[in-house]
């Protein structure tokens, strides 16, 4: 707690890092990182005070339609890539040139981050991205293997006190870091005493998770039998059912045949068929059905028997293809092949509903159509709400594709590219659905669309709504949708004038902005479509429309929030020696309502002291933060003595500039160590 308007004073010493827990920070740069727990001692000695605050998820779980308990055939993705904790371990992102990312969230219900550490604590970037899209559960893995794993199990499963102590720690870790469940994976033999206590451990862990973490799940991996033998069954049967009955579900092994699914359907499951997640290894290791670009063959069989599916290691599309520049193409192909067996979930969002389609990685960062930085980067927390990606035919030679494109963007790293060919025989506008959502609308709504279109096509919006009272219907397929084509407002319209004034001096740089107003009563927005119409003669017409941003806003809320950043503090300062300069590393903290912002921009400026390239007082961008916490790393500052200021600008979701008087700032005075 540092007094408002005070100056933080530092004596520059180039000593060993004084950070509270070095394993939470990169040894060379002090960049915050996430890591797992390796031993039972690490787990049992864990306390909240030891937790890395940077690794705590900051995005709450968004609701979806339908909720998980009404999904009768669910989809789980288990992300296992090269041991885990790769580029994603850097909490604030990194400058990876060709990272792996996932952005087909609308297809899945559950995301599991898998590694072979005893306790896998998720990189917060994954939890944030999943929660933003309403992916109901973000599992973490508790795994024991081989001889060491067997010894651990014999110790913690020896009695009630021991297994409860382990379960309590797992619950505390989940609650602290903001994720929603556990995959329990014991892949070693168990003694008679230990295996007898496993169902009791699972039941206690499941009950405690349900009590402390709303919507949480605990799953058991198909490995150990009720007699303690390690023998994968590839199904639920009487030899492993005792574990299934004690928790929220079973993740089966991958070497199943269709007869295994038939036998499971004959079990008395008491409406729990959706709790069986049939494993599919995308790498196709062993005797499996499908895999790789034929994974759809496995899903076809699984869905035919009405089971949930667990897709293991879909990062195959990245790992096994040397040309990483083809990653987006390969990922889109893989999920398109599965799309007939997956179910699109609607994100239930309040207003404002905003997306610039950023996928959380790219070769540049844009802000309102202008380059902000020109370097490779990766940070899944920066991922915005993702649209629908697909490829469809339009009859004859016609086609339509929806894909992410990093070549230009309005905000973030990429835009939504709608391209294709309108065949001469196609006389009606092409309607590209980009969102399936559940957004209650106020009586007066402003819709803003920013796009760049190829010549000789007209672009407009089609919105599909329904009466809000219908949205409580159990069978969402029976909801009747009404099409609304909002009329574009003239640039001189009072509402457009107010909106553009709030947006500030925009340089559109070739982008077109169109605003529409909806006057509806008790309606819910269910679909957003972009209509593309050929201008001129009926002929085969190639087209492209790059969508930069969609905003759906409550007219009554068109104002800059009055909130100011306050409570700015600087701590955990580390000084490193650079080439003829000092490198400042420090943690910056502040208070501001997180629900208002897209991100924060962190700047610094020199107030006193020589710096050959930066004029005194000029703000220099340090980076973006997606929480009220930011680690400044390797910032080149003038040699001591000096005085600098760190400044935090809130960037609100609607994009309206916030007055500088509402920004946060803290001065840092630093001097030489006179004892040296």
From TrEMBL:
It comes from the Eukaryota. It is found in: Cytoplasm, Cytosol. Residues 558-671 form the Cytosolic endo-beta-N-acetylglucosaminidase C-terminal domain. Its main location: cytoplasm. Residues 85-364 form the Cytosolic endo-beta-N-acetylglucosaminidase TIM barrel domain. Keywords: Cytoplasm, Glycosidase, Hydrolase. Pfam families: Glyco_hydro_85, Ig_ENGASE1_C. GO terms for molecular function: mannosyl-glycoprotein endo-beta-N-acetylglucosaminidase activity. It is an enzyme of class 3 (hydrolase). InterPro entries: ENGase, ENGase_C, TIM_ENGase. GO terms for cellular component: cytosol. It catalyses: an N(4)-(oligosaccharide-(1->3)-[oligosaccharide-(1->6)]-beta-D-Man-(1->4)-beta-D-GlcNAc-(1->4)-alpha-D-GlcNAc)-L-asparaginyl-[protein] + H2O = an oligosaccharide-(1->3)-[oligosaccharide-(1->6)]-beta-D-Man-(1->4)-D-GlcNAc + N(4)-(N-acetyl-beta-D-glucosaminyl)-L-asparaginyl-[protein]. Its EC number is 3.2.1.96. Endoglycosidase that releases N-glycans from glycoproteins by cleaving the beta-1,4-glycosidic bond in the N,N'-diacetylchitobiose core. Involved in the processing of free oligosaccharides in the cytosol. Belongs to the glycosyl hydrolase 85 family. This is Cytosolic endo-beta-N-acetylglucosaminidase. It comes from Astatotilapia calliptera (Eastern happy). The gene is ENGASE.
């Amino acid at each position: 707690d540092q007094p408002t308007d005070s100056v933080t004073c530092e004596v520059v010493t180039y000593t060993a890092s004084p950070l509270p827990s070095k394993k939470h920070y990169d040894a060379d740069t002090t960049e915050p990182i996430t890591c797992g727990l390796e031993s039972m001692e690490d787990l049992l000695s864990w306390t909240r005070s030891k937790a890395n605050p940077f690794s705590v998820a900051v995005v709450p779980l968004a609701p979806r339609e339908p909720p998980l308990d009404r999904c009768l055939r669910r989809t789980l993705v288990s992300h296992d890539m090269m041991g885990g904790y790769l580029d994603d371990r850097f909490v604030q992102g990194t400058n990876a040139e060709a990272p792996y990312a996932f952005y087909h969230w609308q297809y899945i219900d559950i995301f599991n981050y898998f590694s072979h550490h005893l306790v896998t604590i998720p990189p917060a970037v994954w939890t944030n991205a999943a929660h933003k899209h309403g992916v109901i559960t973000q599992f973490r893995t508790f795994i024991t293997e081989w001889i060491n794993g067997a010894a651990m199990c014999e110790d913690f499963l020896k009695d009630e006190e021991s297994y409860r102590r382990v379960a309590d720690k797992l619950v505390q870790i989940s609650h602290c870091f903001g994720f929603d469940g556990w995959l329990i994976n014991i892949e070693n033999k168990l003694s008679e005493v230990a295996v007898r206590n496993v169902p009791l451990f699972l039941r206690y862990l499941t009950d405690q998770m349900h009590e402390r973490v709303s919507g949480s799940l605990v799953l058991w991996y198909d490995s150990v039998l009720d007699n303690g033998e390690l023998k994968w069954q590839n199904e639920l049967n009487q030899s492993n059912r005792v574990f299934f009955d004690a928790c929220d579900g079973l993740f089966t092994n991958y070497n199943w045949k269709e007869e295994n699914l038939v036998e499971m359907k004959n079990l008395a499951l008491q409406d729990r068929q959706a709790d069986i997640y049939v494993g599919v290894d995308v790498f196709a290791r062993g005797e499996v059905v499908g895999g790789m670009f034929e994974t759809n063959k496995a899903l076809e069989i699984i869905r035919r028997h009405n089971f949930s599916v667990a897709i293991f290691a879909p990062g195959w599309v990245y790992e096994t293809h040397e040309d990483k520049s083809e990653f987006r193409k390969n990922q889109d192909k893989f999920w398109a092949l599965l799309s007939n067996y997956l179910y699109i979930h609607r994100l239930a969002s309040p207003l404002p509903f905003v997306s610039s389609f950023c996928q959380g990685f790219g070769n540049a960062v844009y802000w309102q159509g202008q380059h902000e930085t020109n370097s490779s980067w990766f940070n899944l927390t920066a991922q915005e709400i993702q649209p629908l990606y697909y490829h469809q035919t339009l009859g004859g030679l016609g086609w339509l594709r929806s894909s992410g494109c990093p070549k230009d963007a309005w905000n973030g790293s990429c835009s939504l590219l709608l391209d294709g060919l309108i065949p001469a025989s196609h006389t009606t506008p092409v309607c590209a659905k980009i969102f399936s959502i559940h957004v209650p609308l106020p009586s007066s709504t402003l819709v803003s669309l920013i796009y760049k279109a190829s010549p000789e096509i007209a672009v407009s919006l089609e919105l599909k709504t329904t009466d809000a009272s219908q949205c409580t219907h159990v069978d969402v397929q029976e909801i009747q949708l009404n099409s609304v084509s909002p009329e574009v407002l003239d640039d001189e319209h009072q509402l457009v004038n107010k909106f553009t004034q709030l947006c500030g001096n925009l340089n559109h740089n070739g982008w077109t902005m169109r605003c529409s107003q909806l006057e509806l009563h008790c309606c819910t927005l269910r679909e957003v479509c972009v209509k593309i119409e050929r201008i001129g003669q009926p002929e085969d017409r190639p087209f492209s429309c790059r969508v930069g941003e969609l905003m759906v806003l409550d007219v009554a809320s068109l104002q800059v929030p009055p909130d100011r950043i306050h409570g700015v503090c600087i701590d955990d300062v580390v000084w490193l020696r650079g080439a003829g300069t000092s490198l400042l590393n420090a943690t910056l903290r502040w208070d501001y309502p997180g629900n208002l912002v897209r991100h924060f921009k962190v700047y610094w400026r020199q107030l006193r002291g020589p710096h050959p390239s930066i004029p005194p007082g000029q703000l220099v961008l340090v980076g973006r933060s997606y929480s009220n916490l930011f680690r400044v790393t390797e910032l080149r500052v003038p040699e001591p003595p000096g005085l600098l200021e760190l400044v935090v600008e809130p960037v609100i979701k609607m994009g309206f500039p916030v007055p500088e008087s509402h920004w946060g700032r803290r001065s840092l005075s630093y001097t030489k160590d006179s004892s040296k």
